[in-house]
Amino acid sequence: MRHHQAEWRGSPIAPACNPRFLERQCRKESITVGQTLILTGTQAAALAAKLCRVQVVAAYPITPQSKIPEVLSEYVEKGELQAEFVRVESEHSAMGVCISASIVGARVFTATAANGLAYMHEQLHWAAGARLPIVMPVTNRGLGAPWTILNDMQDTIAQRDTGWMQFYCMNNQEVLDQVILAYKVAEQLMIPTMVCFDGFRLSHTMMPVTVPSQEEVDAFLPPYRPLYTITAETPVNINPVVMTDPLPDPEGNLCPSYMGFRYRLQESFDQAAPVIAVAGREYGERFGRSYEDCLYRYKTEDADFLFVTMGSLASEASETTDLLREEGVNAGVIGLRVFRPFPVQELVKSIRKARNIAVIEKAISYGYEGALNTELKAALFSCNGHRPAVFNYIVGLGGKDVKPADLLEAAHDTIRSAENKTVQKHARWLGYGV
Amino acid sequence: MSTAILDLPEQEFILPGTRTCAGCGLPIAYRYMLKALGPKTIMTHPACCLTILHGIYPKTPVAINAVNNTFASTAASASGLAAGLKALGREDYTVLAMAGDGGTYDMGIQALSGAAERETNFIYVCYDNEAYMNTGVQRSSATPSGAITTTTPVVPKRQPKKDFIRIMEAHHLPYLATTCSSYPGDLYNKFMKARDIKGTRFIHLAVPCPTGWGYPTGDTVKIGRLAVETGVVVLYEMEQEVLTLTGKSLSMARSGRKRPVDEYLKLQGRFRKMSAGQIEDFQRQVDERWEQLLKRAGF
């Protein structure tokens, strides 16, 4: 396996697979960072929660997430983390506990995957509608039936419209960083946030992770200050029935209707991009790893062929990009760190020079194509004139290995089809066997 | 001894303007519950008749903090309130969870069983009006046999009511009680007692519903009393798993007088299709349960 050079902008952390490079990188950043530990993605997520001083944790086991609550319960039982750990009887209750604990003003945390996330579905809508800054890592895993415990992104992509922000991680350093960032951003916008990372590929793979000190995280992330405090003197009825038209309160002030509340949520999403960028920049200034850019970019400057993808696939695509460059293809990679809010402007700007784009996805909207592909094409509609050829490839469902050969095939297929002026009618599935 | 009406605290937490149906038993009970629990109470409830009672945004007639939650997660929500308040050092609040029979016997059983097993520090009240009343009188597992509902419209419900209280007993709670909206003194005493006990406290509250049961709205208190006087509802409490009859049920046990169930059934439209045989069956079930409870209470 070849390793590519780190020339990308944004996060200075290398794609997942090069520990030696990461160590070097960590040394380079040692002016501001704490110690470098070798951690799995789940350990990184749990450690991040501890550094964020979460006050209530409610979690239910599901592979490949289980290590997160295991590690957190150890922190709590050893007294290293002052938190209430609620060992719930289901994911539906895990989110139920988080919602109510957040309502009374606690910083809360849970984690799940796959069917556990699907079981939470109703509660996800509730958390977003109630405007609660809950942070939840999701170790991406395929949904049954039939059963798989292995990785794809169908679980989180299927929750796209629940009103949660969705961050995607490329390596375990990003898992730790994005959990801390997620609290910072969620508590400003009052929008719950999923931090998604690939099950097993990241959750169970050990990588060097540079861990900031508690003091540094405290300085970046102050204690959660809820919008209101429950008091006996001024009782409130939280999340009651809301009517279709604004109604006056006892003082005669018109209060929002149901649709008014929905509009406010969307408005906050519309304002989210700069909030994420500012927090990401501050993170970079403090810890040496900037997340100002919501996109991971690899050799995009002169690229006329681009892979557009998310999660650890971005590192795999980076490897393949080097192979393509050896073939003389000016290839590059864009990996979305933020899927909701969807980074329309950034994406459109960054693909302006590309003629051919292969969108590589580990999820599908049945009856159509990959959601990222649909959204990328929709984003292009907002940009004048530029119409690159966009081809969609579904890969890696249920943990199926995505090999450089698969991604080379996607690239060659895209470039060949574009030259032949072929329009793709259906997303092409790679590696499904029979 | 029941607290006399005149000895109850004057402070009201249920103000005029509740949106329940005329004759609803729920606000009667809720009023006395909150008098016992006081202002430092935070309650959580799913979509149910209570949602209606609590009113429409931005006004509410209920003067304690209330949290709405999803149907299956009342006890999970209470767990979250308890955990959050503890984490913030605000344990001086009483966490109260309330759901109907549908939200307890059916959909909420998992979260409630989980919270009870975890010994969560809260009071759970199942207000039982014996069907999904808020959605329009559909059958629940708390609906008694012989009742017509909108989902048993032609053939009245065949199965008997789920013995949910025994399921809660199996959780070995520090406090478990049954009460009824027609006996405010009994109800008040039980909530006063529950308030000062730590751990999961479960209270089954029988609440007549004129809309779903088919009786005149002025008869709610009378129907509730008849439920107790016929032994359909038995008032008791269990502290550290010791069963004690209370109030009217205790005096019935002492006097040996219990009215026939027919007096209770015949006043309600929902039982109008019951045959003489079915009424006999119903009587037999009530008698069996009454005898069991008498025995367990040491009679």
Protein described:
The complex is a heterodimer of chains A (434) and B (299). With 434 residues, chain A is of the alpha/beta class. Chain A folds into two domains: 34-211 and 272-287, 3-Layer(aba) Sandwich (Rossmann fold); 295-429, 3-Layer(aba) Sandwich (Rossmann fold), CATH 3.40.50. Chain A is built from 15 helices and 18 strands. Chain A has helices spanning 19-28, 41-51, 67-77, 91-103, 114-119, 121-129, 154-157, 172-189, 214-220, 258-270, 272-287, 313-326, 344-350, 371-381, 404-419, and strands at 35-39, 56-58, 84-86, 108-109, 135-140, 165-168, 193-198, 207-211, 237-238, 247-248, 254-255, 295-298, 305-310, 331-336, 338-340, 356-361, 389-394, 428-429. In chain A, the strands form five sheets. Chain A has a six-stranded mixed β-sheet with strand order 12-14-13-16-17-18, with helices on both faces. In chain A, strands 5-7-6-15 form a four-stranded mixed β-sheet. A three-stranded parallel β-sheet of chain A has the order 3-2-4, sandwiched between helices. In chain A, α14 (371-381) links the parallel β16 (356-361) and β17. The longest helix of chain A has 18 residues, at 172-189. The radius of gyration of chain A is 22 Å and the shape is globular. Mean pLDDT of chain A is 93; it is low at 1-32. Chain B has a single domain, classed as Rossmann fold (3-Layer(aba) Sandwich), CATH 3.40.50. The relative contact order of chain B is 0.13. The chains are: A alpha/beta (434), B alpha/beta (299).
